[in-house]
Prior knowledge:
mainly alpha; 15 helices; globular; disordered N terminus
Amino acid sequence: xxVPGTESAGAAERAADAAAAAPGxxxxxxxxxxxxxxxxxxxxxxxxxxxxxxxxxxxxxxPLRVSLIGTHPVVAELLNGSIEAIISAAAFARTGxxxxxxxxxxxxxxxxxxxxxxxxxxxxxxxxxIMALPGSKRAAKHxxxxxxxxxxxxxxxxxxxxxxxxxxxxxxxxxxxxGMRLVVFLILDLIGVLLWAGLLAGLGYAxxxxxxxAAMTISRYSWWFTIGIVALTVVSVVRSQRRLxxxxxxxxxxxxQNGG
Length: 260
């Protein structure tokens, strides 16, 4: 993981990789499908494995995500920090099963558990990884602005990440790429998580018994809801792949043509 004492060494190593990848040269073992260039370092492998495992955990916990919200919503919060789990836990607190303080505390690990990995990915791989993430096209047009404004943009973006129509992972990768320190990132992320969880908890507390009944109904038919979520996800992925294949190829860079 990048820390202040090793940032210069990491920057020097990335600079060497970039120099090796200059036009007209090829980096041995470079794979455009991977976020690093050339031979992976230990940090590259560890971060990449962590991100892969975070994706696998989503599918592994999906049945529990649905079944627990009507029986043990606080446990569901700890596992995945989902919107429905926080609302359900606060609704249960309204009916005398738990407290709002526990609801907010349980939401922190559930919402933040993988955020550090994406900040680290931004430090390690930067823009190359940003452009490989789903939804990155929305963020691409703001990359130059991020470089110009720095913390004036990245700090509020991390705090508001849960409220923005951009995947949170992209914002965290950008924060790491822009040079945000780890301590600052964790503090801002915590503030944003508490604001988001507080909003959802307030909604669940206001709904009270009605939300509890809805959560228990969902849990009763959890497997059907799980199958529906998986089916919708598969359809979305298939449509995205078809759009990518149908998209026209990007026009060649005139500078490259003149140089060739």
